[in-house]
UniProtKB/TrEMBL annotation:
SUPFAM superfamilies reported for this sequence: NAD(P)-linked oxidoreductase
Organism: Ottowia pentelensis
Gene3D superfamilies per record: NADP-dependent oxidoreductase domain (3.20.20.100)
Cited InterPro entries: AKR_Detox_Biosynth, NAD(P)_OxRdtase_dom_sf, NADP_OxRdtase_dom
UniProt keyword Lyase, yes or no: no
Domain NADP-dependent oxidoreductase as annotated: residue spans: 15-343
Name of protein: Aldo/keto reductase
Superkingdom: Bacteria
Keyword terms, alphabetized: Oxidoreductase
Length: 352
């Protein structure tokens, strides 16, 4: 698998990256290590994690995923030089006071979180350090609209950039990125970096899948014009786009094991909306009608999009990993892509 430059940075990543938020919750440490080994064997060089993982987030599992990756790296001398390692500093508390209290994310918070992640990961440098979600009140995680009345941001973007710059200057971080950001946020981070000589964001990691194409509503233009790489997470829509919930729903008789069936918290989020599952079923049937599995259609849609620099796949088994990587070879006809767009025109983005 060839590598591509991530945005305007010198980082070179594979167009498929391994997301790890299931490690330590749905996936045991030995199984996580086996998944990591297989991904590297099959040519993936990009591993993404975050301080708040495992997911669903709990105080008991905070930082566990990074620790699992750290143990994996320690047991495999030389592996660190073979991978691009990404992690994230959590934004202000979202019902997770064990991460940090209050509505802000100070420079001290950013630096302390980075140092803690470095320790858990057992590495001296994080290749891509991302802000997991903005301190600003933005339409994300199922929130559809920006509401100025809910704006309580305490840390200006320039202060966040300056904190990240100190980490870069200290050799703790190579490149910086954003996540769950808006077009305004991406533009403002780039503008201030260029104006003040601070590190420029290499990437933005946002949800992108058939049932949430909100990226296509302006963020794609921002990324293209500013040369910021898009990292697409949840390409399978929390499992809805695999087809496994088509027959039973999330909790009906015979419901399969997965995030949506295991965790009530997940069903209360955007993925649990009736419209999200109904629309996913339409895409899944479209895939079958064209001789593909739902997983193949959903992943190929991201893999082949000009918008996406790297697609982050999250798996719970070696079989899932191989299925996701094998989908790299799937091509989608213009007719099938037109049918995909026709569904979106009617259903829009039910999991936004």
């Amino acid at each position: 698998m060839n590598t591509i430059s991530l945005g305007a940075s010198e980082l070179r990543v594979t167009p498929i990256g391994l997301g790890t938020m299931t490690f330590g919750e749905q996936v045991s440490e030995p199984d996580a290590h086996a998944i990591l080994d297989r991904a590297i064997e099959r040519g993936v060089n990009f591993v993404d994690t975050a301080e708040m993982y495992s997911v669903p987030p709990r105080a008991e599992t905070y930082g566990r995923t990074e620790a699992i990756i750290g143990h994996w790296l320690k047991a495999r001398p030389g592996m660190r030089q073979r991978i691009v390692l990404a992690s994230k500093v959590a934004g202000p508390s979202r019902d997770a006071p064990w991460i940090r209290a209050g509505a802000g994310m100070t420079a001290a918070d950013i630096e302390a979180s980075c140092h803690a992640s470095l320790k858990r990961l057992q590495t001296e440098v994080i290749d891509l350090y991302q802000i997991h979600w903005p301190e600003r009140q933005v339409p994300a995680f199922g929130r559809l609209y920006y509401d100025p009345a809910q704006e309580h941001s305490q840390t200006p973007i320039v202060e966040q950039l300056q904190a990240l710059a100190r980490l870069v200057q200290a050799g703790k971080v190579r490149q910086i990125g954003l996540s769950n950001e808006t077009p305004y946020g991406v533009h403002e981070f780039v503008r201030l970096a260029e104006q003040l000589g601070l590190p420029r964001v290499a990437s933005v990691q946002n949800c992108y899948c058939l049932i949430n194409r909100s990226v296509d509503n302006a963020l794609d233009e921002s990324c293209h014009r500013l040369n910021v790489g898009l990292l697409a997470f949840s390409p399978l829509g929390a499992g809805l786009l695999t087809g496994k919930y088509d027959a039973s729903g999330f909790t009906g008789p015979g419901a399969p094991v997965g995030r949506m069936s295991l965790y009530e918290r997940q069903r209360k989020m955007r993925w649990g909306r009736p419209a999200a599952l109904a629309t996913a079923r339409r895409y899944n049937q479209l895939a079958r009608d064209h001789g593909l599995t739902p997983t193949q259609l959903a992943l190929a849609f991201c893999y082949r999009s000009w918008r996406v620099a790297s697609t982050l796949i999250g798996v719970t088994s070696l079989a899932h990993l191989d299925e996701n990587l094998d989908a790299w070879n799937v091509q989608l006809s213009p007719e099938l892509l037109a049918a995909v767009d026709a569904i979106r025109l009617e259903a829009r983005d039910p999991a936004q």
